[in-house]
Amino acid sequence: MTQPTFTNLWPTQFMEIILPGHDQANPILADHIETLDLQKAQMTTDYRSDNLFDEQHPVVQWLKQSVQRAVVDYAQHSGIDYSLDFAIQAWANINRMGDYHNLHNHPHAWLSGTYYVMVPEQDTLPTGRDDRTPNCISFFDPRPQANMNAIRGDRQIDPEYRVKPTPGQLLMWPAFLHHLVHPNLSHETRISVSFNVVLRWKEDYLPD
């Protein structure tokens, strides 16, 4: 009997990795970002004005090199077997109690990602709904209404993928993917570094 062939079409590749050396790097990186925050009040929201990865601070360069390696790993796992020419624009985020990020994506980029420096261990939850997931990040199916045919156990149609990040974790995804960051409900600060991977155009990128 002929066996069927299955092809998973149009997947959204999502990458997660814990960076080696984060235990030593994160306290230094947190101190550096907090210093930058004191110098620039709107650092988190004014992310286009500077590129954190242009700084020559050793721990910033460690993170930049780690992200560059992650981009190469992501591309290779996608089946891209040629070299890419890309730039990375990065910015730091400091989220205090009540801070969050609305639903959005990252236009004009190929990939986006976030590295987590500090994540509150405990959340101060006031009385209210028990389905809150503070400090999580949620990603949503880019296919409109794909979940209308949802049946239990079919992971092709889960409308949301939610992650509770940990310090040292790097997440990376296609820049078109809509996502949001749930509010920080802790008196502790959440610190992260987000980035966009922008391709410098080459003829090699054109499909056959």
Describe this structure in words.
There is one protein chain. The two termini are 35 Å apart. The chain is α+β, with helices and mostly antiparallel strands. The mean pLDDT is 90. The strands form two sheets. A five-stranded antiparallel sheet has the order 1-7-4-9-2. Strands 3-8-5-6 form a four-stranded antiparallel sheet, with no helix packed on it. Helix content is 18%, strand content 25%. The radius of gyration is 19 Å and the shape is globular.
Relevant CATH superfamily: q2cbj1_9rhob like domain
Classification by helices and strands = alpha+beta
Strands, total number: 9
What is the second-level CATH architecture?
Sandwich
> Quick one: CATH class?
Mainly Beta
CATH topological fold name: Jelly Rolls
Compute the average pLDDT: 90
The domain tally reads: 1
What summary fits the major beta sheet? Answer: 5 strands, antiparallel
How would you sum up the global shape? globular
- Residues in β-strands, percent: 25-35%
What labels would you give this structure?
globular; 9 strands; five-stranded antiparallel sheet; alpha+beta; Jelly Rolls; 208 residues
